[in-house]
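Thread title: Can someone regenerate the structure for this chain?

I was given the following input by a collaborator and told the matching structure tokens would be attached. They weren't. Posting the sequence so someone can regenerate them.
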Amino acid sequence: MSEFTQFTAKTFGSLVKPYIGYFDALKLNLRKAEMPYSVEEYLSMLIFGAMLAFMFVIIFGSVFISIVTLFAAYSLTLSFIVAAGSATGVFFVGYSYPSIKAAGVAKDIDKELPFATFYMATTASSGINPSEIFKVLSRRRGRIGNEAKKIYTNVKTLGSSLTVTLQRTASRSPSPAFADLLWGMISVITAGGDLEAYLKGKTSTLMSKYRRSLNDYAKTITLFTEIYITLIIVGSLFFIILISIISPLTGVSVLLLQTFLVFFFIPLVSVGFIILLKSISPTE
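Best answer:
Regenerated them for you:
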């Protein structure tokens, strides 16, 4: 625990502790997001951040409002309202952050899962002990590789049983698909079933889903490409030609506007499209 976390927990912990039971969802999201804080510690930090935002806005806001507006008499009231809104916003943004981060972790896991399952099925075909599957899987990079390393460490180093470790991992995993895979493995191992057949079946299912997502992604790229060419490229060229024709009639120089469109607007929008397509990509 850092000194900052200790300070906030010591300062606001007694205020937060009676209401811990109302924040089970936050506790689960903190675990899924792999954030090393208890609910008490995290809520204490949120309260401290909200108080800082409130004090900053009410001090500087009252001065700014009184200078740039005609409502100097009401500057304190207006700044109080803005400060209260800012503090509330900081608290709720911070409160939502673990769930947002957990969703990002789940997305990364889902991208890796079809290939990781195939890797596990191939390893299981050699007939090795189920715990050794996670040892081999831990050599992969990414989220699932890290989870496999934790599972193998808990089993071999800490002496925990594989089924109990898998249960804990599945219960805190932000990815329903990965959790379902682990719960299925628990059932097969407990019942003494064919783990290789189970993993091959899951691989087939996940690969089919992955192929469908690639097909949907290809259609999405086609749609966005048409939008990009029609609105951005053709639209910008049409606008440049249009203002070039109109400018001699009006006597207004449009060189600055054309320069902005060609060297700033189109490149920035292009980068935005690339980032958007990258963010929705189903590939690793």
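The first helix runs from residue 3 to 16.
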